[in-house]
Amino acid sequence: MLEESPRATESRCHVLIVEDNPDGRESLRLLLTLLGYDVEVASDGREGVQKALADHFDVAIVDLGLPKLDGYEVARRLRRSLGREIRLVAYTSCDPDDAGDQVRDAGFDAHLVKPASLQDLIPRLRGDISRN
Q: Is 81 helix (H, G, I), strand (E, B) or coil?
């Protein structure tokens, strides 16, 4: 029996990036696509919630400082509607020590500071590291 490679497993991971900065959004989308992830994007919080509820995503990477709905509200709405069916990663320039309690209370599984290295990002997409 052949075992799946980590890359094959990652390629089935459906990721939603909710980021209002066009350059940051496109850079992260391109990087994850090149790594084999199935990636979609949203440019504001309201669009992010709509997309997440309309399709099945394994992970949502959500900026906290979004227009229309901030990232905290995106997380709260997705947790209420989807429960633990989706892994939520806060992706922001805020220091985890400053936003940590709010991030946890909103329902995020992990917190990454921009720009995140691949060594920090990939384990959080897989769910290997939580609430950091």
A: helix
CATH numbers and ranges of domains, the chain: 6-126 (3.40.50.2300)
Taking the model in full, what pTM does it have? 0.86
| SS3 state at 128 | coil
Tokens of 84: 């633990």
Q: Which long-range contacts (CB under 8 A, 24 or more apart) does 72-75 make?
A: 72/102, 72/103, 72/106, 73/45, 73/106, 74/18, 74/45, 74/48, 74/49, 75/106, 75/107, 75/108
Summarize pLDDT for 41-53 with one digit per residue, the tens.
999 999 999 999 9
The single-letter code of the amino acid at 25 is R
Integer Cα distance of 118 and 122 in angstroms: 6
